[in-house]
Amino acid sequence: MRILVLGDAMGLSGREALKKNLPEIIKNYKIDFSVINGENAADDGKGITEEIAKDFFSLGIDVITSGNHIWDKEETTKYIEQESRLLRPANLAEGSPGKGFGIFVTKDKKYKIGVINLMGNVFMRKTEDVFKKAKEICKKIVLKKNVDFLVVDFHGEITSEKMAMGHFFDGTSTCLVGTHTHVPTADTRILEKGTAYQTDIGMCGDYNSVIGMNKENSLKKFFKDKDATKHFPANGEGTISGIIVEADETTGLAKNVSRLIIGGNLVK
């Protein structure tokens, strides 16, 4: 069983890189199930639209996760109620549109895959306690009982919070990946009890930028230049960044995990 998890799709650059490379990646790496964080996929790098989500599904994506920008496009609040494959963080305020986790079936109908979307509490928008919510969800989705494999996207700002959540899920999920900071970390590994982990899997977008945003304008903003404008994405050649997890069909845990970096100017 091979699971592909991709970092935040960033604007047009990220979408173009996915359009160009994703079908071939799925074919060449024999991917059985794929997840991407899509909360930055819109042209301005904030939010996701119905049209973009449908494009991702047509390219072979099975589930789209998100984070703090999930409501940046007004249409999303309605669309997410209709599309179960688009998730929002599970620890958003009670009564928020959509769902924060779900159980999905592989294209060959052979396996059930659980996907959980969580968002950190530190330096992020106010949400319910993410560790308390994670504990609640773990009682509802149990590896090898309710699902064959389980993927967790933890959308957070700080490394310690992501690492702590990784250890919490160790042995009870196939993988836990960090998203949001847009920079892939070099700590890809399988934790002690069998869960694949990486603190942040980076982004799918133009790395000749400041976390995906135009670098010249970003520098102007840091220097408090009066000519600085609202942040907007860099639209050079995009890099696809994520991980591929090879999972054991008996235990649902990871046997192997490797970083995936394709295209653009990011060194593999």
Question: What are its keywords?
Answer:
single chain, alpha/beta, Purple Acid Phosphatase, chain A, domain 2, 5-stranded mixed sheet
* CATH homologous superfamily descriptor: Metallo-dependent phosphatases
Helix count equals: 6
Radius of gyration: 17 Å
Indicate the CATH topology.
Purple Acid Phosphatase, chain A, domain 2
pLDDT averaged over residues? 96
- Number of domains in the coordinates? 1
CATH architecture: 4-Layer Sandwich
Main sheet: strands, sense, barrel: 6 strands, mixed
Structural class determined from secondary elements: alpha/beta
Helices and strands, in order, run as EEHEHEHEEHEHEEEEHEE
Give the beta-strand count: 13
Which range does the strand content fall in?
15-25%
